[in-house]
Amino acid sequence: MPLVYLVSLGCSKNLVDTETATASMLLEGFGIATDPEAAKVYYINTCAFIPPAREEAEDAIQTAVNWKRHSPRKRKLVISGCLVQWDTRKEYFEKYPDVDQWIGIDEVPRTGKLIAGLLERNPGKRKFLRTEKPEFMAGPETPKMALTPPHYAYVKIADGCENRCSYCSIPDIRGNLRCRDPEVIVDEAGNLLRQGAKELLIIAQDVTAYAWKNGAHVVELPELLRRIDAFTGDYWLRLLYTHPAHFSEELINTFNDTDHLLPYVDLPLQHISESVLKAMGRKISGAKIRKLLDKIRGNIPEMALRTTFITGFPGETGRDFEELRDFVREQQFHRLGIFQYYPEPGTPAAEMQNQVDPEISRERATELVEIQREISLKRNQKLVDQEINVIIDEVQEDKAFGRTWMDAPEIDNIVVLENVSEIEPGQRIGAVVTSAREYELHARILTLKL
User: Fold this and answer.
1) Residue 256 burial (CB count, 10 A)
2) Which helix (H) or strand (E) is 113 found in, with range?
3) Which of 113, 127, 354, 387 would suit a FRET pair with 229, their CA atoms being 20 to 30 Å apart?
4) What phi and psi values does residue 444 have, to the nearest 5 degrees?
C-alpha cells in the first residue's frame, strides 16, 4: 500500500479541503504516513491569501522538493489548493519543476484518483489542473476524513465569497459564494456528534452570508444553527468568520434561543475609521459597527468577541490609526488579531493612491499588539481564583492543555493543567485558575465531566 505524507497549510477552511482530499486517497487504497521518509507521495494543500502565506507555502514546497530529490524516480510531489488557484500565470509551476502535479480546488474530491493516475503515468509528465472559478462544494456523497482530534470538528457550510472587499483576493481564489444544502450540513453535524465530537465549529468565508433557497423558503444561518442545536447531548457549537454588515438581529437572538451555541463569535471588523472602511469596501460604517457591538453586548452580556484589524491600509492617516487605537482600548475585545496590510496583486486596493509605508504599517500593528497584550493580561488576571470550564485538547505525561468556551482551537488562549492523571482529550474539566499570563491560564482540577 503506497503511503502519502500530508501537509495542510492555512486556515481551518483549508483543513476541511484537506480532509476531503485525504478521504479520497484512502478510498483509492493509499495509506497516510506520519514520516515523509516512509511515503511515496508528498502532498501539500496550500494557502495563498497574503504574501506571508505564500512564503510559508514556498518553504513547505522546498522542503518537499529536497525530500523528492533523494529518490526522484520513486517519489512524487503534489501541490493543491489556494496557491494553485492564485497562480494564474503558472509562475510556481515554472519555478518548481520537481512538482509532479498541481491540483486546483475543483479537483479536491478526486485527489486520490489523480494521485493514482500520477503513479501510473510516465515519469516527467507534469500536470497543472486549475479551473478559473472554483465551483466545488461538498455534497452528501463527498467523503471526509477528520484530521482534527476526535473531540472537535469543523463544519464548512459554504465556500467562496461575494463581499469583494477591496484588499482581498479570496473571491478570485475561492470563487463566488456557494452554500451547502442544510440537510447535508445537519446530517454531517449529527454524524460527528454520534462519533464523539464535543465541539462543532461552524465555518465559511462568511458564515453570515449563508442562504439556501428551497422554493419560496430560504434557510439562513439562524435557522441552520437551530437545526444543529436540536441534537441532544452535552456539546458546544462555535461560530467563526462572521461579517459585521450581515450580523442580523435574528442571529443575535439565536444565541439566547439555543442550548449549545457558545456566547463566542469571531467578528472581523478590520477598522473603525469611516474613510478607511469605505475604501476597504466593508459595507458598514464605523457608527454602525459601534451600534452592533452595543446591541450584541446588550443582548448577550457574556459574549466573548474575537476580531481582527488591518493597519496601514492605503490612505490610513495618523488620525485614522489613532481612532483605531482608541477603539481597541475602549472596546476591550476578548481576542484580537492584527494584520499588516499587504498590497495583493489584482485587487483594487493595490492600485490605490497613498499607499502607506510598510514600516509605518508594521509599527502600527506592533502598537496594537502591545495594547491588546495588556488587555488580555488584565482579563486573564481577573480569572485568578475563579472556577472555569475547560475542554481538554492535548495531554502530555502529567500536563494537560485545554481551552475555555472563550477560546477556539489553534487561534486563541490556552489553559494549562499540571499534575494531572487519567485525563483524555475531549473531556471537560472544572478547574480553578491559579495564575495568568497574557495568553495563557494555569489551573488546578476540581471536577471531571465526561
Assistant:
1) 10
2) helix 111-120
3) 387
4) -115, 150
Q: Mutual orientation of helices 111-120 and 12-27 as an angle, nearest 10°?
A: 50
267 vs 244: CA distance, rounded Å:
6
52: cell is 506571508
Per residue in 215-264, pLDDT (tens digit) is 889 999 999 999 999 999 999 999 999 999 999 999 999 999 999 999 99
Angle at 253 between CA 376 and CA 308, to 5 degrees: 30
Burial 75-109 (b: 16+ CB within 10 A, else e): bbbbbbbbbbbbbeeeebbeebebbbbbbbbbbbb
Find all residues with CB under 8 Å of 444, minimum gap 6, and list them. 417, 418, 419, 431, 432, 434
Q: Kindly tell me the sign of the dihedral angle through the C-alpha atoms of 161, 164, 168, 174.
A: positive
Looking at the whole model, is its pTM more than 0.90? yes
Q: DSSP assignment of 211-252, as one string? A: EEEETTEEEEHHHHHHHHHTS-SS-EEEE----GGG--HHHH
Determine contact, residues 134/43, Cβ cutoff 8 Å: no
Chain position carrying cell 459597527: 289
Report pLDDT for 420: 85
Give the position of cell 483576493: 169
Asked if 82 and 47 touch (Cβ cutoff 8 Å), the reply is yes
Q: How far is CA 304 from the centre of its chain?
A: 18
Collapsed DSSP state (helix, strand, coil) of residue 393: strand
Per residue, the 3-state secondary structure of 424-442, as one string, reads CCCCEEEEEEEEEECCEEE
Residue in 217, 127, 109, 209 with CA at minimum distance from that of residue 163: 209
Collapsing DSSP states into helix, strand and coil, what is residue 300? coil
pLDDT for the residue numbered 449? 56
In whole angstroms, how far apart are CA 416 and each of 12, 379, 431, 434?
23, 17, 10, 10
> Is the Cβ–Cβ distance between 393 and 402 less than 8 Å?
yes
Give me the pLDDT at residue 126, please. 80
- Per-residue pLDDT reduced to its tens digit, 144-198: 999 999 999 999 999 999 999 999 999 999 999 999 999 999 999 999 999 999 9
Predicted local distance difference test score (pLDDT) of residue 153: 97
20 touches 108 (CB < 8 A):
yes
Positive or negative CA dihedral for 135, 141, 144, 145?
negative
Q: What is the pLDDT of residue 421?
A: 81
Amino acid at site 145: M
Identity at 45, one-letter amino acid code: N
Which residues of the chain register pLDDT less than 50? Answer: 450
